[in-house]
Predict the 3D structure of the following.
Amino acid sequence: MYKTIPLELSIIIVSYRVRYFLEQCLFTVMRAAQGLQVEILVVDNDSGDDTVTVLQQKFPAARFLANTTNLGFAKANNQALAVAKGEYVLFLNPDTLLPPDALQKCLAYFKQHPEAGAMGVPMVDGRGIFLPESKRSLPSPWISFCKLSGLSVLFPRSTVFNRYALGFLSPYQDHSVEVLAGAFLLAQKKLLDQLNGFDENYFLYGEDIDLSYRIIRAGYQNHYYAGTAIIHFKGESSAGDQWKKLRHFYKAMAIFVSKHYPGGSGKVFNALLKTAIFFRGLLAAISAFCKPFILPVADAVWMILSLKTAAWLWVENIRDGKTFGVDAIPVLMILFAFSFITGGAAGGLYHPVQRFSRNILACMLGGIFVLAVYALLPESLRFSRGVVLMGTAAGACCVLLSRIVWDRKKRMPAADEKWLAVASEENYEAIRVLLQADSRDENLAGRVSVNEKQGNALCAFENLPGFVQQHKITHLVYCHDDTDWGKMLQQMSLLKKNKPCFLFYTKGSEALISSQVQYPGMPLVTHIAVFSLSDSYQQQLKRLLDIKLAFFSILLLPLHWVLHPFPLRFLRHAFSVLKGDKTWIGYAGTENLLPNIKPAILSSAGTVPVDGVPETAFQKTDKQYARHYEWWIDFRLFFRYYRKF
C-alpha cells in the first residue's frame, strides 16, 4: 500500500477586487511553497470581475471558492478553513508579497517552539516602511483610547501611549506578543479547529485580535518572528471612506469588549471607546466640511488681491494718484471674487478630477460672470472697466498657476517621469512591453543588473541608490524574481528620502503593482492600456472644438484665400467636420483597440491618414495621442498644421 504524504500547510487567501495584487501574491506563494506539501485555497468575496475565471486558469494548483456575496473577512476564512487539510494554516491577505524562504523559515521556527499557537512576521508597506500593526497588544480602555485619540501616533515609542503597536519593542527581534495581524497569521490547524476559527460576528477589523486573545486563553503563545519579512500593500481591498472604516473599527471593538470584558469594566471600556470615536468623528466631520472650501477661498483671495493691485496701479499710473471716488470698491471686489468663483464652479473649476484644459474654460467662464455683474451695476458704482478686466485676468492667471503647483504636488506629470527597472534582461523586456501597452515605455531609462554581468545595464544593483538620486528617478520597478529580498527591502528603506514610486513585477504577471493607497495618483500598469480619449467627457469636448473650429473657419473664409495654399480644399474639410463626417485631428493608422473617433483629416503627427499602410508604423503616436488627449492638444495642432489641411 502507498502511504499518503500529509499536508504540511494550508494557505487561505480571501480576495475582494484586487485581481492584479492577488495574481502576484499567488506567484510568490507558489515560489515560496516549493519543496513543501502545501494546498492553496482562494476565497473570492464576489469581486464582480473576472478574478476567478482568469486566475483559476493561470494557477490550476490553487483551489478557488467563488462567493456570490461579500461574506466579510472572518466568515470567508472560516469557509476555507472548514475544508483545509494542512497541519498548519496560514491566513494571508491578497495584497501581500512573500520572499522565497518565508514559508520554510516560519514552519521551521514553529516546529522549534511547540508553545506557539500562532505566529506572525514583520510587514512593510509598498514604500518599504515598517507597519507597526505587525505586532500589537490586546486592547484595554487606555490602549484603545490612545489609539483612537491619536496619542499613539504622537508618541510612537512610548510604553504608556503606544502599547497598542508595541512601539517600544524592536521590530528586528523575536518577541512573544498578544496580537498578530490577520494579513499573515500562521497557526496550528488543530488549535484553530478547537477554537472554531474566526468569530464570524466580525466583518472587517477585530477578528485577528479576537482570535489572538482566544489562542492565549487556550494556553498557547503568539510569536512575532523577525527572521523574514513580507510586503503588505495594506488597505487595497478596503480603500475608501475613512469615516466608514472608523465605524467598522468601532463596531469590531464593541464586539470584542462585550465578549471579553463583561460587567462594569466593559461599560467603562465602551464609554471610552464611544468618546474617542466621537472626537475622531468630529475631527473627520470638520475636515470634510472645510475641505471643499479651501480652493474657493484661496481663489477668492487671489482675485481680491489681483483686483486691488490692478486698482492701485491704475490710480498711480493712469489717474496720477486720483482715486475713483467710489466708497463701495472693497465690497464690489468681494462681489467680483464671488462671481468669479460661481462662474468657475459652473465651468468645473472645482471638479474632483482636475484637468488643466477644463480649468482654462472655467476661468474664462468666471471672467464672463465678473464682466456680466459689472455691466449690471448702477452707473455710480462702475468705477473702472479697465481695472476689472486687468484684475480679473491677473487673478485668473494666479488661479491657474496655483492649480499647476497644487497638481504637481499630488501627481508627477507623465512627461517628467523617469522609470528604472531592477530585473534580468528577460524580465526587463516583459516590463518594457507592459509599459509600452500603457504608453509609458518612452519614460523607461533602462535596466539595473541583478546578480549577473552588467551587460547593457545602466548600473549595478549595489549602485542603485546613488543612480536614483543622480538621475532623479521617479518610478522604480523591482522584479522580485530576480532580486535578493533582504537587499531589496534594505534599498527601499535607503531610497525613502528620494521618494520614488515603487512598483513590483514577477515573471508571468499581467501588471506592475504599487500601493494605490500610498500612491493615489499612480494607476496600475497593466497589459490593458487606459486612454483619456475613452472618456465621454473628452470626446464631447473634442466634438465641440471641431464644431467651433469649423464654424469660424467658414465664417473667416476670405482670410483663407490669403493665408491658405488650397482654400477650397480647406473649406470642404470644414463642412465635412461640421456635418460630423470627420474630425480635424485624429489617428494616422487604423488600430482597432484605440477609442473610436471619426476619420481624421490629419493625424497628430501632421500626416494624412493613408489606407494600406501597416498599423505598426503609427501605433506609438496614435496611442500617445489617445492616452494623453485633451482638447487643447487639438487646438494647438490645428494652428500648427493649418496650411496642411
The chain has 21 helices and 22 strands. The mean pLDDT is 84. The two ends are 84 Å apart (CA to CA). The first helix runs from residue 19 to 32.
